[in-house]
Amino acid sequence: MVATGEKLMTAAELAAMPDDGMRHELVKGVLTTMAPSSEEHAIVAGRVTKQIARHEALDALGEILTADGGFRLATDPDTVRAPDLSFVRHDKVRPPGQRKGFARVAPDFVLEVLSPSNSAGEVNAKISDYLAAGTSLIWVVDPETRTVTAYRQGGEAQFLGVDDEIDGGDVLPGFRCRISEFFADSRS
């Protein structure tokens, strides 16, 4: 809850902030700051990215955006989220020269890799923001438990373990991968 009289930040003000080496998001006008990711977090996010990028049909479908890309999911007050990885269909990507500021669409796919510092409330708030904005598929990867929870619009959460296979559904059609491929120690 924001205290009465507290000045809320806008997406434009967030975009104008100098680079301080930290990741920032805006949640209902309130700036939140996250420390750089741990090595484990970065490796898992990289491995998921590698698996998705190998999907042959992806280039014809849309664009992969890295954690540096922010999405303005709500306005007045503004909410800007920056997932660890996202995918946006071509028809939602603005043309070159018009891509200033944060993307003004909900990503079609979002990956969030949990860090030990993430609270359940923070993660649930992110999931709610993405789903409310229209994101179709969200994967929350937990390196500690080696699990993935998949959230889909209008559907129930699906919990998958390291021995399960995950698919991209309608968002990443034809994509399938064993969850074990997301973790660095899965190589022999």
Explained architecture:
With 188 residues, this protein is of the alpha+beta class. It has one domain: tt1808, chain A. The chain has helices at 11-16, 39-53, 58-61, 120-133, and strands at residues 23-27, 30-34, 62-66, 71-74, 79-81, 85-89, 109-113, 137-142, 147-152, 158-160, 165-168, 172-178. A hairpin with a 3-residue loop joins strand 11 and strand 12. The model has no long low-confidence stretch (mean pLDDT 90).
Descriptive key words:
two-stranded antiparallel ribbon, 12 strands, 6-stranded mixed beta sheet, alpha+beta, 21% helix, globular, single chain
CATH-defined fold name: tt1808, chain A
CATH architectural label: Alpha-Beta Complex
Q: Give the ordered list of helices and strands.
A: HEEHHEEEEEHEEEEE
The helix tally amounts to 4
What's the rounded overall pLDDT mean?
A: 90
- Rg (CA only): 17 Å
Give me the side-by-side strand order of the main sheet: 3-6-7-8-9-10
Structural class: alpha+beta
Distance N to C terminus:
49 Å
Q: Quickly count the domains.
A: 1
Shape: globular
CATH class: Alpha Beta
Q: Tell how many strands the DSSP assignment holds.
A: 12
Please report which band the strand proportion falls in: under 5%, 5-15%, 15-25%, 25-35%, 35-45% or over 45%: 25-35%
Which regions have little confidence, pLDDT < 50, spanning 5+ residues?
none
